[in-house]
Amino acid sequence: QVQLVESGGDLVQPGGSLRLSCAASGFTFSSYGMSWYRRAPGKERELVAFISSRGGITNYADSVKGRFIISRDNTKNTMYLQMNSLKAEDTAVYYCNARLRAVKLYDYWGQGTQVTVSS
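The structure corresponding to this sequence follows.
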């Protein structure tokens, strides 16, 4: 069955770095656009970053541009989010999403990983 498993969340000090991973299985990973979303306490879920199926296109939320880097390795069925210069406002649960619009919409989500930025 389809699985998206996030890992790498942790407690980190402001200014620190983390790398999140999303391991995919049960579908053709290289055909899907992949995204990272996050939901902070009391806030709506927001799109953090997107990467196209072959990695040639990336987009970022304005709040993370220049600090976060999204990437993927289609040989390992894994997506990454390198997060640098972390701020308290980056504290959230981070979710991995896989999406493909074909005859129908295929839309899969992971269970989330907690990132806490605090001194």
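The longest strand covers residues 92-101.
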